[in-house]
Each structure stands twice: as structure tokens, then as C-alpha cells.
Amino acid sequence: MSNGTTSPEVFENLKLELRRGCLTLAVLAQLRSERYGYTLRKALADDGLEIDEGTLYPLLRRLEAQGLLASEWREEDKRNKRFYRLSATGEEILNQLLSEWRRMNDSLSKILQEA
Amino acid sequence: MTKQATTFQNPLELVDRYLQAVRFWLPKSQRQEGVLAELGEDLRSQIEEKEAELSRPLDKNEVSAILKKCGPPIVVAGRLGPNRYLIGPTLFPTYAFVLKMVLLWILVPVFLFIIGPVYVVNSAGNWPAALAQTIGDLWSGLFIAAGIITLVFVLIERSPAQAAIACKWDPLSLPPVQKTERKPSLAQSLSQLIFAVLGLLWLLLLPHHPGLILGPAAAILKAGPVAHMMYGPILLLTVLTILKPAISLARPYWTWFLPAAELVQSALTLIVVHFILNAAGQMTRGDWHPFVVQATGLSGNYIQAAAIVNISILISFACAWFGTGIALIVQLWKMFTLLRNKKINRQPATLRA
User: Fold this and answer.
1) CB distance A36–B41 less than 8 Å?
2) CA A48 to chain centre
3) Cα dist from B66 to A44, B51, B69, B250, whole Å
4) How much is the average pLDDT of B65-69?
5) Interface test with chain A among B31, B36, B38, by most A beta carbons within 10 Å
6) For residues B265 and B46, what is the distance between their CA atoms, to the nearest angstrom?
7) Which of A106, A24, A95, A7 is nearest to A64 (CA)?
């Protein structure tokens, strides 16, 4: 650190911090249409945001506890699956978060251009 | 163990074994929430998709690779379960403060200045045994105290009172801002210098005018062997005491100097007092007059008066040793925090934030 070299550990920690908020936004956005855990993970990965099981399911439970998601167990292809979708509150919060995201993105772009 | 791990017919049984292992590490409250069913469904979907891609069922190694990618059961359970800690972030700073106070500022000084010396006195000259006993008891004491404090904080963490403690604070009750670097005032340094010079003059006059310390008792008492021996070192300490305010006056911007000089002064005082007590202790009991003896050529017997004065001086030196020891620990801590603050202040603001 002191000699100016980039520590991989510091980079990983900062990347995780940066990713945390983005993942919540991405999950909420993906759940505008109903999905179950695996298809949600797959949709996120297809769009370039890989997320492991140990991160996704606690996040889904937290968002549901906050009233942003609604879920139900349903049988599909002879297997029980838990389907998630955005609740009315979740939709409202998602819109607010998206405006905030766009505002921050504009600011950051401006800052990066100035630099 | 190896036999148990290989005796399965269906590769998908591996998924059930995996879920069972994750279940084992999950807290009981989490086992009922369908979290395992959700994880199992995810894993089976992955297997199903892979099988569709290869147009054949997966073998045990391919299933094993999927599970390996998911992570070790204990790690997955840790991620799926709630965040758990013995002492949470709200209470932890208080816990660390109490632990530090009790262990470093109460237990260690008590053992160093009370229990340790008591063991040494009762050891009949067997210093190493007394030292070993002190260190052993201190070690056990530290462990027991740390355990009790941790237990108390764990109980507070789990009690409803914890939230009330966290909310109950008033910005108006915050202590005033402390100056991190103490700059000695001119009046303070000047008065210290004047008193130190007067003290040195008094000390230089003592051998010729013992009445300056003994008062009227100078007619019947005179300096003993230890008093003669300690005169030189005490004179040297007084000269050093003059140097401290003198340098502070000449270099007031040396903010590090005063705490450093106080530290050195306390250390030297402790050494000198230790040697004085040691010398007094080594004198034979029948003729124990270390500091004052009866003056020669007197008609009366003043041995008892000399004994009382000697014991009083000895007690005074013992108290000085104890007080200086505590002062030295406090000064060492101050010096440590001063150096640490200097180091932090040298870092760029972004690293401090």
C-alpha cells in the first residue's frame, strides 16, 4: 500500500462494496417479471452479473422481509419451486432507486470526464 | 468414513447428502424456512440443465463438480444463515474499552505493585519462585476476568436493555475536545525551573547544615550510611529536573519532549528508589539505621528516636516507589498514544476516513 502498488485484497473489498448495491437494484429490476431462484440467477448471469446461491437467497429473504418482494411456493415440472415477484412497494422503491442510480451515474460520468 | 462416502447408487443422492451437511451447520431457526428446499431446487435445476445440454444423465463426478462450485457446506450455511456474533458492533467498542481497563489498568498494576511484592516478601528470598507465582496467577486472573467480562457482554447483547443503552446518549454530555499535543506554558516552565534550582541549592547545603532536613533533631541525629550513598544519585536527579523546564523554555515547540522527559525522570527515580530500598533492606537487623544514626558524643540514648525516623523515611520511600511506578505506567501509555496519534496524523486523510 505504502509503496503505491495495488493490493488485490483492497481491490476485491472495494469491488464487493460497489457490487452490493448494484445487485439489489438488479434483482429488484429482474423481478418485475416473476421468477424462481435458479432462473433469476441465470437471467442475472446472462446479463453479466453472476451471483452465487449463498448471496442470492439471503438477499431475496431480506428483500421479502422488507416488503419489496412477494413469494409463493408452486409446483412446476413436478417440482416445488419458490417464485418471487416485485410487490407494489417494491415497484415504488425500485423506481426511486432507479432515479437515484441515474442521477449518480450522471454525476460520476461528469466527474470522470472532468478528471 | 471413506466407505460411507462412496456407497451410493444414484449420483443425485449426492445433492441430498450435501443438503444434509448444510442443514447440520444451519441454526435451528433457519432449518424450517424452506431455505434448504430452495437451495436443493437450485442445484437440481443446474443438474437438469447440464443434463439437457449433454443429452445424458450426469455421473457422480459431474454432480460433485456442481456441488463443489456451490461451496463447502459450512461456508454455504454461514452465508444462508443470519449474521451471528457474540458481541455486536453496537456493544463492541464498550466491551473492548472495559476489557482494556480491567486487564491493563487494574489487574496488571495490582499484580505488579501489590500481589507481586507480597509474594516476594513472603518468599524468604526465593525471588524466582515468587516471580513465577506472580506471573502464573496474573495469567489465570487475566483469563478469568476476560471470560467474565465477555460473558456479561454476551448477556447484555442478548437482552432487550442493549437497544436502550445504544439509544440513551446525549450529545450535550460529550467531553470537551482534548488537545492532542501539550505545549508547556512559559509560566509553568519558569516556575518549575525556579523551584528546581532552589531544590538543588537546598540539597547542596544539606551536608553542612543537616538542620535543613532534620530541624531540631539535627542536634541528636546525623546521616546514616544509606543517606550518604543516596546523596549523589538524588543530586543527579535534581540536576535533571532543572534541565527539563530549561529545555522546555528553550524549545517550546518540542511537544514530544515533556512527556519523554517525564518518562525518563520517572524511570530514573524508580531505579534510584529501588536501590535505596534494597540497600536499606540489606542492612543487619540488630544495627538497622540506614538513613539516620545517633550523633556521637551525646550523653542520652536516642536510638529509639533514630529508629522512628528511619522507619518513617523507609515508608516514605516505599510510597514513592509505588507512586512512581504507577506514574511510569501512565506516562508509558501517554507516550504510546502520542506516537500512535503522530503516526495516524501523518497518514493521508483518505486513509484515516
Assistant:
1) yes
2) 12
3) 18, 12, 5, 75
4) 90
5) B38
6) 73
7) A24
**Interface touch A52/B71, C-beta < 8 Å:** yes
Looking at chain B, the number of H-run helices and the number of E-run strands are 17, 2
What are the sequence ranges of the domains in chain B?
A: 2-80, 92-166, 186-352
pLDDT the model gives residue A36: 93
What pLDDT, in 10s, does the model give residues A38-97? Answer: 999 999 999 999 998 888 998 998 899 899 999 999 888 888 899 999 999 999 999 999
What the block records as the C-alpha cell of B311 is 522507619
Residues of B in contact with A36 (CB under 8 A): 41
CATH 1.50.10.20 describes domain A8-114: no
3-state secondary structure of A36: strand
Task: For residue B148, give the 3-state DSSP assignment.
Answer: helix
User: Which residue shows C-alpha cell 480491567?
Assistant: B102
- Cα separation of A62 and A96, whole Å? 19
Residue with grid cell 441465470, as numbered in its chain:
A42
Among B11, B78, B80, B81, residue whose Cα is nearest residue B39:
B80
User: Is there a contact between B166 and B104 (Cβ–Cβ < 8 Å)?
Assistant: no
Round to whole Å and give the CA distance between B32 and B19: 13
DSSP category for residue A111: H
Sequence spans of domains, chain A: 8-114
**B254: which residues sit within 8 A by CB, 6+ positions away?**
B247, B248
Q: Do B35 and A57 touch (CB under 8 A)?
A: yes
Nearest CA distance, B63 vs chain A (angstrom): 16
Helix (H, G, I), strand (E, B) or coil at A81: strand
Q: At what angle do helices A37-46 and B35-54 cross, to 10 degrees?
A: 60
Q: What beta strand segments (E) does chain B contain? A: 221-223, 292-294
Distance to chain B for A73, nearest Cα, Å: 10
B44 vs A contacts (CB less than 8 Å): 79
Residues 62-121 of B with CB under 8 A from A: 70-71, 75-76, 78-80
Q: In this model, does residue A4 exceed pLDDT 60?
A: no
Portion 12-51 of B in contact with A at CB < 8 A: 33-35, 37-39, 41-46
Instruction: Tell me the three state secondary structure of residue B241.
Output: helix
